[in-house]
Amino acid sequence: MNSVEPPATALPEIDVVPHGSGAHAVTVTHGIPAPLLTELCAAAEAEHVGLTPSAFAVILERVGERHHYGGASGNAPDASARATFFRSLQLADLALAQACALGLEAAWQKFIALYRDRLTKAAIAITRSVSLGEELSDSLYAELYGLAERDGLRRSPLAGYSGRGSLMGWLRTTLAQRQVDSYRRTRRETAIEDQDFAAEPAASAPDPKKLDHLGRAVSSALAELDAESRFLLSAYFLDQRTLLEIARLLQVHEATVSRRIKRLTGSVHKRLLKELQAAGLSRRAAEETLYADPRDLSLNLRKILQTSHSPPFSVQEPQTKTPTSNHFP
Amino acid sequence: MTDTSQTGMHLDADQLAAFGENALPPHERELCLAHLASCARCREIAFLAQDPESQTATAPLAKPALPRIMSFNIWALAGIAFACFIVMTIAIHKRRGGEPAAPSQIAVNTPAPPPPTPSLQQDESPKKTTAMATRIPAPAPPPPSIQQSGMPPQSLPDIPAHESKQEFVPSAAPPPPSNSFVADNGASKAAGRASAVNETGRRQSSVEAVIAGAAAAPAPELARKAAAPVQPQQQSTSMDSATAIPPRSRDAAKQSDVVTLNANTTNLPMENRSLAKMAEGGVSGVITDIAGASIPGAIISLQQIEGTVHRQATTAADGTFTIAAIPPGRYRVEITRPGFLTQVQQLEVSAKQMAQLEPHLSVGAATETVEVASVNAAVATGEISALPDHMPARVTKSLGKYMLALDDDGRLFSSSNRGRTWKLVRPVWSGRITTIDVAPGEPDARSEEADAVHKTQRAGLSFRATSSAGAVLMSRDGQHWKILSSR
Prior knowledge:
The complex is a heterodimer. By secondary structure, chain A is mostly helical. Chain A has 13 helices and 2 strands. In chain A, α5 packs across α7, α9 packs across α11 and α10 crosses α11. By secondary structure, chain B is α+β, with helices and mostly antiparallel strands. The chains are: A mainly alpha, B alpha+beta.
């Protein structure tokens, strides 16, 4: 299983207010000032889903500590920064998700009313099949409900939702994870070197030495790109994503993505020319070398683009050819 | 990063979802991009998880289309064209022999008859307005009356001159110069009026103040259609030739503004509403809790106490808000936010001044209300100035210190100092702008603008405009626009 399960940490013993009881005890803050906690609980409608303020405070503190209150790790946030972080969360979604993870019935009733149909529709959109979508959403729904237990604790992926994005976005992403993992288990990736490229016809057989220079120049040029540039090239050239898809993910305009990719390819082209000329080739020879048939190159572009500059992790999926992931401090 | 990413191999659903919704802090977003660049699986999940319904949603825009070098060339060409124009003008002038220009016809303000209402007490002004004036860094609005013979003729900026004289009866109650929180204090108002009367030497003459006062009465009707253009008929009568406008009953006690024109007065091409709009004020500030933390999503409602003007705004992520184009007067301010006590207070808005509000909300049930005693609100050192074309601002939107104004001709103006100065936005669209708004937007990570822009970036809001040609545009600062979609 490639996707990371949320930590199996149960919430400490907390008070669960029966739905509709109207209790509103604000005494324990768990690091959150009582007035702020009252405000956050009101915004989150925590009581409506059966969470006491102290329980919600625990949840908020856990989220805040996990994400360093929105700041870089190592920085000690002040009270104002913590308050701003808490207020920036999707509080209602967070309260609902965490209450569902705890198995509170009131929360589940609300979740079913709000998200059951949307979950199914999202699954159908992801799988592009009604039957597969319903199957996917039903299996995820059961998993969300926390039927699985480990060490006697109820486990639900909803406990991993932090409230930074919307709950519906999290649900869609979780569905996508399940779908991709299922697909990858049953399919084999096609290496880029197996594909044919429409290369310019070479006037003569390429010089192996020049190809060697080119290979090294390509590796060097691509390796020096920043993360966003490599992501753009990977998504556009390797994944064959459209400009619109990339633009929507990055939340920029399609024309912006187009310009960036064009600028990137231009700069990589220039860099390659420079590298080849630095290796001793003349300008003309360097340009000719760039028109070499990629099939003549002993390069794994996918590997080059997707090679992380950080210390590598061990590979989890043996069948996955691509090296995976970065190490996040 | 999160525990899950430390122990796992890939980005978890929470990180991916937050990345797709641009809800990650910059450093974490960078890390996610680095991982996505190298992980095909997570890329696949990220793309697959995109909401298909958001395909038609407007995406935030990046920087304008023109690369820097092209922008520079355009500016260079513009500079050269301007220089050529200057040279040609000088050459033509010299060829004509330096003929003197025709004398400009200017409006002459003659001494006006005494004000109709007895409440206008000039002698009260010096002392009473001193205390108020100390709180006002910006100069007071122009006096309504010209009771001074021999006053040099004052020319209005865009009013073509005419030789006839205009007589103006001063406003009995022009907008007071102070933006302080005042209780219903007639003496304060009288002092304010008197101070306005005593102000001299202002470039914007009494005409504006009188017309502003005359326009104050119909302003509530105009304010109901905040985004709609001002109805010219409502105020044009005030400038009709040889028409004396009787004082309006609503303002009879305070602001019975009368404008009497000489029989030879010709119609002024500039409509009254533009002068009236130039006399509007605004309110801005930041809402925080007792601890000083900003409160986003708080609703600020302004209701004119003796009128029907109503304005409402919601604080941004950093707790700031701005409400512009408010007719001068007294307002009841109500600040509400779930989880906090509703705060109510009164506020006096003066013409061309931005009142500053910095209340601190106390935690409590929103149904409970706390009445704040009238306190003096600081007046921002700047004031909302008129648009460069002196047309009224049909719609104004603000985003932190950036403001956007749309005039009746569909031209956009932007300000980077809360309305103190305005610049015409160079159109990158065809047609006129029909609507402007503030909407969620994507900040450009490569922006080189000031910290204030980053503030709006973090808030994720941008200005959005729609043109008559159907183009939708977005901008972070009101000056640099990007066409999001066009027909």
